[in-house]
Amino acid sequence: MVRRVQAKELFTASEVARFCQVDLKTIHNWADRGEVRHFRTPGRHLRFRRVDVLDFLRKYGYPVPEVLRQGKPNVHVVDEDPAQLDAVKKALAQRFEVTGFGDPVDALIAIGSEAPEVVVLDVGGTKIDGLSCITRLKAAEATRHVRVVVYSAREDKKPKALEAGASAFVQRPDLAKLTETIDALMGGEAG
User: Where are the domains of the chain?
Assistant: First the structure.
């Protein structure tokens, strides 16, 4: 069995303090003020998801440490068009661990149970309302941290997709831009 290198997904307050070169009390203050998304363990210890740490570091101009760039981020691609789905999977496979779904309902079930780091979604599908899916993914605590990248030819949907909670909108068919956008969201230098 081949094991993929798994990126570390959760960080302690001490680790985040090291990333920011501040003391532990500062991290606790930032968390208490809601400056950085976090949760608490049953023992009341602070924990920070990788994607939330990345957002915080970028927002305040901190460099992204190597530990946040390790592993292949898990990306789910949802597209009803089999040819497009194959093209996207092939383009992303070098940088990311990719799972593709032609049926959006199957994708939603998998997203809920596997919680990928990024979902690539075409809001122009006919089987399900992509904008409503984004809104629901962002509303649910279990999937709120998942980054949604809309990859669509429907440029007219861009404002509503971003308003619904999408992290980015990439105009189809620019696969290089899609790869660059996901890489930047996950801590890479692109973007």
Answer: 10-68, 74-185
